[in-house]
From TrEMBL:
This is Gfo/Idh/MocA family oxidoreductase. It comes from Paenibacillus kyungheensis. Belongs to the Gfo/Idh/MocA family. Residues 33-150 form the Gfo/Idh/MocA-like oxidoreductase N-terminal domain. Residues 162-278 form the GFO/IDH/MocA-like oxidoreductase domain. The keyword Oxidoreductase applies. The keyword Oxidoreductase applies. Keywords: Oxidoreductase. One of its GO terms (molecular function) is oxidoreductase activity. Gene3D superfamilies: Dihydrodipicolinate Reductase, domain 2, NAD(P)-binding Rossmann-like Domain.
Length: 364
């Protein structure tokens, strides 16, 4: 189908030619052609700003239910094609893949539609809101032989692998517990945001809890863990504005976390071992650009700090650049099939922990 037959409008600007040239600076036969489904606030940061740093990926077009938002993004970023509807984007045979940046409650529906249309999918977290939606998505991806990847931005940075190696090496003794703080103050316009609406996956735990669970999956492992959660659910429309969660993992290791939209900003993991405390501060910073991260290793003797501190510093990286490269590589090499198992495990746990906290709130 030609673009003229689809009533697709073209939008390019001279000011953004440098972005377009960066996007197409590779061989066409190796290019993953990506369409953007939905123009939520995360799209520029997660896709449009990092895309020029990713060879073999071309942003072909954009669609949104409110056409003016698609037009604005296309004009600002020099995106060539604006589709008149979401379905029209999926019908375009030139697209290899889509990024889904729609509201959380729409993820499952449009994942199914995208896979049925023959497109690989990178979807903004969470993968979906209801565990009962998971089998359909997994079955569709397998049936059509396509990749479905949940966008957990921190998953593609080496700090997690390095931290896991430090723990497993035994150099600093056995792991005892971890503490996570992920608190991001809500903006003044939060009433108009999905975070304030329970039916859209609102509240801080559905928004931030995935990063804690993914950290535990990668660094420690959570098989057969016992999880619990608490919240007053006193945020807008009964959303959880502060949420506490705990886990008891294998070998007696405990993990605790606090999430909040009302406390001062913090993004920190602290890992307590017998002979050291390892801290990674401000681990969210790499979602804003290319930044360094470092692991701080404070040595202990008889449970007290000795004053000796070691650092493991990582070169500046951007989470979303890494994520797009991972997506591109997974599409290019389908034999290295990306497993949905960890995403499925997270959705089940998010739902379980949130429901547990909600039941306590109702009883009290």
């Amino acid at each position: 189908m030609k673009s003229s037959e689809m009533s697709i409008r073209q939008s390019t600007t001279d000011a953004d030619e440098h972005i377009l040239s960066a996007q197409v600076s590779h061989h066409p036969e190796s290019t993953v052609k990506l369409g953007i489904l939905g123009c939520s606030g995360i799209v520029p940061r997660a896709v449009l700003d990092p895309a020029p740093y990713v060879d073999g990926l071309e942003i072909v077009g954009v669609a949104n239910r409110t056409l003016s938002k698609a037009e604005s993004l296309a004009e600002h970023y020099g995106i060539a094609t604006i589709y008149n509807s979401l379905d029209e984007l999926l019908a375009d045979p030139q697209l290899d893949a889509v990024y889904i940046g729609l509201s959380n409650e729409l993820h499952a529906t449009w994942i199914r539609k995208a896979l049925s249309a023959g497109k690989h999918v990178l979807v903004e977290k969470p993968l979906c809101l209801y565990p009962e939606e998971l089998p359909m998505m997994g079955a569709a991806a397998q049936h059509y032989g396509l990749q479905l990847i949940e966008g957990i931005m921190v998953a593609h940075h080496p700090w997690q692998h390095t931290l896991r190696e430090l723990i497993q090496s035994g150099e600093y003794g056995d792991l005892i517990r971890t503490v996570t703080q992920l608190t991001i103050p809500a903006k003044d316009n939060h009433q108009d945001n999905y975070r304030s609406h329970p039916e859209q996956g609102g509240g801080c735990f559905w928004d931030l809890g995935c990063y804690w669970l993914q950290f535990l999956q990668q660094v420690i492992g959570i098989q057969h863990g016992e999880f619990d959660g608490q919240s007053l659910f006193d945020g807008p429309n009964g959303c959880d504005w502060t949420f506490e969660a705990q886990a008891r993992l294998a070998h007696g290791v405990t993990a605790e976390a606090i999430f909040s939209f009302e406390k001062p900003y913090s993004s920190r993991h602290i890992v307590y071992l017998e002979h050291a405390t390892i801290t990674i501060n401000d681990f969210f910073r790499c979602n804003l650009g290319f930044y360094k991260l470092k692991l701080k290793i404070a040595l202990l003797e008889n449970g007290q700090e000795t004053g000796e501190v070691r650092y493991h510093t990582f070169e500046p990286m951007n989470y979303y650049v890494n994520q797009l490269r991972f997506f591109r590589d997974t599409v290019h090499h389908p034999s290295n099939h990306h497993s949905l198992d960890e995403s499925v495990e997270r959705i089940h746990l998010l739902s379980h922990i949130h429901a547990t906290a909600k039941s306590k709130s109702v009883i009290s």
